[in-house]
Amino acid sequence: MKNSTRPDQLGKNPGVSGLILSSLAGGEKHGYALVKDVAEFAGVDLAPGTLYEALARLERLGLIEAIATDDRRRPYRLTGAGASALSEYLAMQQQVVKVGQSRLARGWSFS
């Protein structure tokens, strides 16, 4: 078992890792299905290099695992450690949203 992974250890772009983990929380997917799912729920187009670099990092960290298959596509699934890291990451993002909204409400008007 890998050591516990803090959300700040998700790599140079934790947002991409969070998107991938969020997608895999909905079930196992291969690369193309991940790209389509992330585009649907987040409006973010993941470039292949970005996706596969993040998948390799998340797999090394034990947050996702590849599933053996006879198909040419390689599906991945979330691990328990990945679910925990995603939960922590999302809690941190909720705090960022809360602070940002509070600060906007105090001094900005949009017209």
Short description:
This protein has 111 residues and is mainly alpha-helical.
Ends distance: 53 Å
Q: What CATH architecture do you see?
A: Orthogonal Bundle
The quaternary organization reads as single chain
**Widest sheet: strand order?**
1-2
Q: Strand count, sense and closure of the main sheet? A: 2 strands, antiparallel
Give descriptors for this structure:
59% helix, elongated, 2 strands, Arc Repressor Mutant, subunit A, 4 helices, mainly alpha, single chain, 5% strand, two-stranded antiparallel sheet, 111 residues
Would you kindly provide a written description of the structure presented here, covering whatever features stand out?
The chain is mainly alpha-helical and 111 residues long. It has a single domain, classed as Orthogonal Bundle (Arc Repressor Mutant, subunit A). Helix content is 59%, strand content 5%. The protein has four helices and two strands. It has helices at residues 14-25, 31-42, 48-60, 80-107; strands spanning 64-66, 76-78. A two-stranded antiparallel ribbon has the order 1-2. The radius of gyration is 16 Å and the shape is elongated. It starts with 13 loop residues before the first helix and ends with a helix.
